[in-house]
Amino acid sequence: MSIRNLDKIFAARHVAIVGATPRESSVGRTVIQNLIAGGYQGEIFPVNPRFEEIERVRCYSSFDDLPQTPDLAVIAIAAANVPDAIDRCGQAGIRGIVVLSAGFREVGKRGQELEQEILTVKKRYDNMRIVGPNCLGIISPHRGLNASFASDSPPKGRIAFISQSGALCTAVLDWAIEKKIGFSYFVSVGNMLDVGMADLIDYFSMDQYTDSIILYVESITDARRFMSAARAFTRSKPIIAYKAGRFTESALAAASHTGAMMGVDSVYEAAFARAGIVRVFEVGDLFDCAALLARKNETKGPRLAIVTNAGGPGVMATDALLQRQGTLATLSKQTLEKLVAILPSAWSHGNPIDILGDAPPQRYQDAIEIVLQDDNVDGLLVILSPQAMTAPVETAKVVLTSAKKTSKPVLAAWMGGVRVRPGMELMSDAGLPVYRTPEKAVSAFMYLVEYARRREILYETPRSIPVRFHLDQTKMRSVFEKLRSEGSDTLSEVASKTLLEAYNVPTTKTLVARSSNDAVTLAKRIGYPVVMKIFSPEITHKSEVGGVILNLTDPQGVADAFGQITLQAKQRRPDACIEGVTLQSMVTSPNGRELIVGAKRDPVFGSVLLIGAGGTMAEIMQDSSLELPPLSETLARRMIQSLRAWPMLGEFRGKPAVHLDRLVEVLMRISYLVANHPQIKELDINPLLVTPEDAVALDCRIILDRRDPGNLDSRNGSARESQSLYPHLAIRPYPSEFREQFTLSDHTPLLLRPIAPEDEPQWCDLVASCSPETLRMRFRYMFKATTHEMATRFCFTDYDRELAIAAEIQHEGKPVFVGVGRLVADVDHREAEFAVLVSDKWQGHGIGAILTDYCLQLCKRWKIQSVVAEMSPANQRMIDIFSHRDFKLSRNIAEDVVIARKKLV
Question: pTM here?
Fold first, then answer.
């Protein structure tokens, strides 16, 4: 297993230490000591011409003297000498580098220049990988490889720890060793000049020792690759993150309401949620959460049952659960009847299930097993408070016995000290999560709930253009380019609404009046009552300068309002250019609710969308939800439902519910507007009036950034054609540009297009139409029927990494899949695996050949260097197709498979 050559670092067979020295407490000596103490079985090569040996290990004067080429060089010398040392490593054939030295970008301009020199050197040597600089180093406990200057080596475990803070690494190591927490890998990434978090997540995703990842994050680089790697990992294994630097004042400088409401931390939270990452807010929760989630004892929902031998702790657990938006399970009638039959009459007769202080182990077991059979229960917390008649160890044994019989998560809280410790150790050693307080246990359960919720989001990848409505791409581009050519970075309300209308977002028609007489004339044309607002490119928050007057009902009122608005604006903003006023219909609805919808381009994650409680109090209310575009219908609904104002959008105090479908559609249209135009820096619709009939933008302001938005995923120079279309998005939308029409030899029209999550029924129908032999030749194993889990694996795709191209025909007016070709690229887009499936009925019509040729074209657009495919020796049709396209064929007799490979460049 070697992803981007990282085996040279984390599975190094020979290690050189550049800057090795016998000086007490030196970094070079500490690294050698750690390698020896960690039980490293590979060879250690200290490199320093001034010494013959260090720590009884022979020292070499240069790389030329080494008996063989090391996989890894650990560099611990002055920063100024590092570029030259890396160059010498490259000349010696060393491709794995860990730079411990400090003194780079963290110290200023000279350090930045040194980093650029390192990158220049790195480009000379193919496949060289560098961790650091300015890092603590790396540890691979399962290989005894401690290439760091940490004070201790951690035990072997199943958690990979990745940290941007070297100082935190030493503290965590000390704490983890005390708690007997083991690691599969322990990595201090430093300045991430080359190897970043995305590389490590991808590498650990294929590692046999890693069940979960913990991230300590200060900032993210390469957001697109980070999101892609994290979403791939969290589909099967959890990632837990602690984000430092949560609070910032930078949002206060934003020009729009949206910008001010969208802080840095809230964007990270939205990105983590979309990537399936569970976030914790206390460092102490990191390892408890990682160990819990890695047990794969998943919950189906938030409904928790509590079995306790004391009422107070049960109430404590309930309070903690409700505070964290969990749900106290409502026990079924049958469960209550069963509990009544086996519990003393004084039990609580509800959830929490207080089985009383004299509860022996058997009473615990009876109650636990009854509660776990209830379909209304998603998880169980068992609480023990030590009393005179309590048996902590024996009760722990019955909890373990019951937990083994269920797929539902069972957690324990053994409250106390010395008396309960043996029981806690018994459960902990058996893998059952146990905590000292009910609150900690509830917090852990809610992490399980959050992980389950966030995994659901992973299967929501939207199309570029939804099937529910049409967008005229030509018209939209034309309107945008015309507005963009007008010169101002801040579009006026009129121009902003013009762009919204191009995306079929309803707005109130807005007209500009540059004099009092113009205002009266336009008001009559619009029809009373009207709204008047100040018209100035420099004034964004109009109400703050007295620049909004509502419900003007006659010509005199309009004339007076013109003078009042322009005078107040000049007095309060003498620096602003006052061009006049705007007028629009006074839209009122007794059943309407005001929301804010907006977007902002984050410097890390690109464009981010926002919806929240709107109006003049938007920033004060701070009720908002963020998401990365573009949106699917499900994501849009989830955004709306996460608002505290969500209950008020339904039937509320005699008001009918708003038109939710229309609001969802507007959100989706705004997301496509933002996705299609990377020049949009900020967009602010405030208020968006949502009524039972419609959703209408009453005011809008768009701010442009005419600079190149850059590419969110360009650090390592990986040239991917798929990224150039959406450089401002952290998640690649549905690639509608890969749709193409073909015609079969019998004149049947055939559409090739990328598959999408909503195509699951068609994919299942395709598989159902195939014979067992066809399925065996494609998947190399037999299965009786498709499952949702299987379908999501093939219909959900990260469009930056894989493409499933469906061959679609029309049958009785409905689209039908007759074949699918699948490309799965490695993270660097150097090699792609290819496979194809064609329905039995349509074999022999040339569909397999068409899919193969089209996928090879896409490989060239993706700049893939080689393609590989595996097939059964009995699949003669595909063998012939590959032979005619100059694939090299080889037979693996042991695995009974034919391998076809073709170099494209």
Answer: 0.86
